[in-house]
Design a protein that fits this description.
Blueprint lengths: L1 H13 L7 E4 L15 E4 L7 E8 L6 E8 L5 E2 L15 E10 L5 E11 L1
Antiparallel strand pairs: 1-2, 2-5, 3-4, 3-6, 6-7
């Protein structure tokens, strides 16, 4: 009985589990070194209550290079169009792998879910 109560207390202190969300990225019309428009991103499993998405991109082959990202309002869309936000686009000397991390945020800025997608460029 003590173990069950301890487990229940620990679970309640940890907070609710984040929802399952997934994302995929297609470079679309992104041009090497000359493009500051975000690529198209498809989303699924975005939780109810999401009002904004926070998107970040990192170069896994050059993690110290800051590409940034952006926040966009979310109104139930299954995808973000090319150019939904501005960032420093890819300009690798050779093929590099990039990771996009998308956080679903509620109206108070609390993270409801997180998804990531990796994509090589070019």
């Amino acid at each position: 009985m003590r173990l069950i109560i301890t487990t229940m207390i620990a679970a309640s202190l940890a907070g609710p589990a984040l929802a399952d969300m997934s994302a995929s990225v297609d470079w679309g019309p992104t041009k090497k070194c000359f493009d500051s428009k975000s690529p198209p991103i498809k989303l699924s499993g975005v939780p109810a209550g999401t009002t904004r998405l926070d998107i970040r991109m990192i170069d896994l082959d050059a993690p110290n290079f800051h590409h940034g990202g952006g926040k966009v309002d979310y109104a139930g869309n299954a995808s973000l169009a090319y150019g939904a936000f501005s960032y420093k686009g890819p300009c690798p000397p050779t093929r590099h792998k990039y990771r996009f991390t998308i956080k679903a945020l509620d109206a108070k800025g609390k993270a409801l879910a997180t998804a990531s997608a990796n994509k090589n460029f070019p």
